[in-house]
Structures are given as C-alpha cells and as structure tokens.
Amino acid sequence: MLLLMIILLHSTSALSPFDIIKNIYNFYTENPPFPEAFQKDDRAIKRSYDFIIIGAGSGGSVVANRLTENPNWNVLLLEAGKEEIFLTDFPLLAPAMHITAYNWGYKTEPRPKNHDGTGGYCLSMINGRCNWPRGKAVGGTSVINFMIHSRGSKNDYDKWQDDGNIGWSYKDVYPYFKKSEKAYFRKKEKGINDTIYGKNGYLDVTTSPWTSKIRNYFLKSGEEIGYSIKDCNEENPIGFCQTKVNLRLGRRVSASKAFIKPIRHRNNFYLSKYSRVTKIIINPITKMAIGVEFLKNGIIHFVKAKKEIILSAGSLNSPQILMLSGIGPKKHLENLDINVIEDLPVGYNLQDHVSMSALTFLVNDSVTIVEARIASNYKNTLDYFSNGSGPFTVPAGAEALAFINTKNYFNKFNNNDNEMNNLVDNDSNDNLVDNEKEEPDVELVFGVGSMAGDSSGSIRSIFGLSDDWYKQVFHGYEGEDAFSIVPILLHPKSRGRVSLRSSNPFDYPIFEANYYDDEEDLQTIVRGIKMAIKVASTKAFKRYNTTLLPVKFPGCKNMSFNSDEYWSCVARQISSTLGHFVGTCKMGPKKFGGVVDERLKVYGINKLRIVDASIMPTLVSGHTNSPTYMIGEKASDMIKQDWS
C-alpha cells in the first residue's frame, strides 16, 4: 500500500496532490477492495432500542460511547453517511475532502448588494453563494474539518450560565473537556501548558510533528506587538500560540476513530450507516417522542425508542429534522402544510465565524507550502506514510493561532483606523496586552501556504471562488511562496437562519447567513484584517521581505487600496466560513428564545434531547469541535442521571 500510494502521488507532474487524492477517492469508493467492510457494523435492525441517536458526529459519537458503557442499555446510532477511508487521514489534504461525498455540499442563499451599493456578502463567490461544508460520514464534520482543538474562553461559558443556563459555567464544563482528552506533547515548548489537559480520554490532543521554518516568526511577531506566547486553551485565550490538533501519529483523529472505533465490539451498540432520517415520530396528544423514521437502501424504516431520542445531526441538519417533525416556528410550518406539534424558534439564532481567507503575504524564500513543490518531493510522501511526519501532517497548513482584542488594541496605541501606514510603522510595545482583563474579538489563523499556491483549485473550490476570480487576483503570482493570515470574527452580532425549502426531507434547507447585517461586525473584521497586516509587517518577518499581495480584488478596484472602505468591500466579497455553525436549537430559557433547557431537553416534548453545536446560545472564542465533544460528555452524564 505504501509503495502504491507513493507511485500514485508522484505518477504525473500534470496533477497536483489534491487532484490525485480526488481521483484515488473516486476509484476507491467505486471499487472498494473489501466491500464487506463497509457493512460489517450494520446488524439487523430491531424494532426498538433504549436510545436512538441521530447523527454520528462529534456530539453523537460521544453519547453513543458513554451510553453503551451500561450493558443493560442498547443503543442505535443512525448516520446518513459512510465510513472514513485512509484518504481522510491526511491532515494537509483536508480541503480535498470538501469536494467529495463526505460533504453534504450545502450553499447559502445569495445576498446581493442593496440598491445603494451597500450590503451583501459572498459577492465574489460563484452565483453569490458561499459553500458551507458539513460532514456526511461516521464521524460527521470531524472527518473533513481542520482538526484544530480549541476550547474558547472562560467568559464564554460563564455568559451561558448568566443567560439562564444553570450548570454551564466554565467551572462546570471544564472537567468535561478534560474527560474527553488524551493529551501528549513530544517536548516542552514555549506556549504549551500540559497541566490543563486531560490525559486519560479517548481524544488525542497534540501538536503537528512537523514545523515550518516560518511558524516561529509568527509567534515572535506577537511578542513584538505586545502579546505573550501562551497556550490558547487556558481560561483566557488572548495571545499567540501554536495550534493544538486532534492527530495520532501524524494522522487525523476523528470522532469515529476516537469514540466509535473503541466500542464496536460492544454487543449493545448498533450502528446503521447510509440511514437518512426523515422525521422523528411524536405523539401529538402526549407530545412524546416515540421513534424515528429513516430511509435506508430505498426502504423506509421505523424504530421505536423505549427511553429517549438524542438528536445530534448538527446545527444545519438538526433544525431541519425538528421542523419536518412538527417542531418549529408555527407560521413557517403551517405554510408548508406541516402539522405543528410545538411552536418553537427552531432555525433562528444561527451564528458562524465568518472570515476573510484571501489575505496573502509573499516571501522571498522557499519556506512555505506550495502544491507543486509538495507534488515533486518523494520524501514528503515517504515521511508521512512511514513515520507520520513531514508537511502532510499540518492540518490544512494551519500552524499557529492568535486571539486578540482589536478594538482595545487600536484604542490603546491611538491608531487612526484610516491610516494603515501609521499602524504598520508603530513598533511601540511599551506595555504588554493585559491578558487577564481582555476578551478576544478576532482570531488570526496563520497558514503556511496561500491561495497563490493553489494550482489544483482545491482551496478556492472550498469557498466557491471561480477560476476567473483566481486569475484576476493571482495572475503572475501562481506558485510563488506565500503565507496567509486569516482574520476571523469571533462574536458576531448578526444572526442568520435555517428554514425549510419544502416539506420534502430530501430538499436541502434554506441557509441565510446574514453576514455583516450588523455594521459593528464589519468594523471588527476590518480591524482584524489590519491587525493581520500589522503582524506580517513586524521586524520578525522582515528577513523574508514579507509583502502584502499588491493586487486589488474584483469588486473593490475603484477604492483606495488598504483603506477601511477597501477592506470592508473585500470582506463582503470574500465572506468565507470555518464551518463553525451554532445556535439554531438554542439552549436557554424559553421566554428568551430557547429551544432546549439546560439539560438539553426540547421544550414541550418528552423523551427528546439535542446534543450538538446547535444548542450553543452564542459562539465561543475558538473553534467549535472541542466544545461539541464537551457537550456530548456533559449530556451523557445528564442522560445517565435521568435514567439510572
């Protein structure tokens, strides 16, 4: 297998690794070497189970693992997707998985500019629609995400509790983060605090075994502008840090590998793949969830839940299933001729970490990841397969992170937001940022590659950017060494919505992102862009003659380059996502728009609970996969308490 893969990856110079991976994926799925392996966990479907879990993602996988610890309970886990294959293991090639059947392939509704030329988002994307990746696999989105392990801040969870969610403060959830984790670090490095992690859980937490020459300059730039190098999974993430990831021997650790694989031998665990849930059956009189209807192999099945149904289909699919089942906004369901069982604000409160992913910095040395160079180097491939090392082990190239409060930073140094040159030249760091008092509003993700090296089109295809857009921006710079710094809006005030397109369960829902509806969000992302430019302009990066790509983006060419107006325009043109969708089945008091209570039970419905990122009332200051594992752990204990 090793020799075959090396030959395939280097069989032709005309194809990039991403193209070859895609071709191998298509061949492998059409001609599986061991067809029986794809069905080995599917046992005869029984008429009833104690617990039925809908969705084998990060939340559902944890719950399946923990509930089957009780040998007296039998548990059915339903998943619409299929098993992982070895190609999903490649951390660097995670973007290639977004263009396979492991992704649902969702897109947002277009939002063009207003009549006065203002507003809109995803304007440079094909047909004005952003791609929203969601995993369709045993393991859910953890099979196609970028594997970053990030918890958020203490204040995030304390605010959840302050908003009426008793038992969800930081001190309450912290033990559940540690319960999942199996952290290990190869050596003592600056910015790693191994005392804050769990050591005995199922989920591997570590750092990439390979480091680029340029990563440490990003960390040093943080010190230069007044931040400390730290572990961003501490109570307050403010600072610069190396990325913590879910890898094992340089390969992806998904929810499936971490939580499902270890329990496949349990006699009380049943996994049914290729099982598309169409609705939850609820008695309209008693308002009790009875069972689940799903389609598998062209046949509609019905299974009964004796104790409880746990919905873990994610922030985009869980609201769809609820509404198809008669739980949702009354007027919306009535318009689609769906019998309303419980009137709840399902699908509202949608939040996402919107970013601007095309910020590119050219360098004068071969210190970044460029597709053509990866494709021509046998050693990289050999290192990966034989030792689990080399650049293939860096999750989508994301090597380091920074969490900053741009508003406070700009105010502190009295920077004029309209004078970028003054900002870049300001080397003052007389006073370090007060980590204890600030809360981040922007995250910066340092990528050791950029779109300049995206010869295959894999990266731009993730975001839905056209080849024509790419040519306009990167013509003359294709294949050049460059890195990226992606600014991310951590706490958007804008809210989107998920709604049904029809009562047909196979019609994709309507996704309204509503990015930048609140003007303050736009102001914050602009400050984030300018902060990224400041970081790249520090003395730390001068040895590489780091230069911001000197090209105006389509749609913004009539504006002054580097001005606030220009970057506001760019943010609306390139409104990219990290796939951190939350809030559509909000946890909170019912009078404040809650769909579930603090024990994650759906209001007004008996024996139905939701366990996924959709219950998060607000976004955390970090990535959402680790918090979803935490939610699964905490929910499992609550379920055990209720049924013990």
From TrEMBL:
Q: Does the keyword Ribonucleoprotein apply?
A: no
Q: Per its Swiss-Prot or TrEMBL entry, what cofactor is needed?
A: FAD
Q: Which residues of this UniProt protein bind FAD?
A: 141, 277
Recorded hits in Pfam families, A to Z, give: GMC_oxred_C, GMC_oxred_N
Assigned keywords, A-Z: FAD, Flavoprotein
Q: Which Gene3D superfamilies match?
A: FAD/NAD(P)-binding domain, Glucose Oxidase, domain 3
Q: Could you name the active-site residues?
A: 580, 623
A single GO molecular function term of this UniProt record: oxidoreductase activity, acting on CH-OH group of donors
Name the InterPro entries on file: FAD/NAD-bd_sf (IPR036188), GMC_OxRdtase (IPR012132), GMC_OxRdtase_N (IPR000172), GMC_OxRtase_C (IPR007867)
What family is this protein classified in? Belongs to the GMC oxidoreductase family.
Name of protein = Glucose-methanol-choline oxidoreductase N-terminal domain-containing protein
Organism, by scientific name, is Aphidius gifuensis (Parasitoid wasp)
